Amino acid sequence: MNAILNILESFNDKKAQSRFDSRDVRNYRMIATIPYLLPILFVLPYLAGKNSEYCRFHANQQLAWFICTLIMAIIGLFVGIVTSAGTIVGWILFVLWLIVSICLMIGAYNDLAVKIPGVGTFAEIF
Which terminus of the chain is more exposed, N or C, with fewer CB under 10 A? Predict the structure, then answer.
């Protein structure tokens, strides 16, 4: 677990994390964690804590993760239709998605402001 947290620390936005209120983290920890595994629920943290920096940050990152999930699904579907290796590529994408989802959940649960590389900086809707 410490190895994962050390890796996640390199993606941690310390400036955003410094704005998190420890009470919000305690109160909304599960609401900010679950949507990383079910990305379609990305709006839940925002609805639960509109005034919470912690909830808004994770709602934005979950929106970015939802978009990444859709892109990965489209790529997996396209590769599956075009090539005979589609099943293998689909499983590889799923395992990659699952690993990243679990890492993002661990980060959110441990009060980190983990930004998704590349797209995490552009997701500032909430």
Answer: N
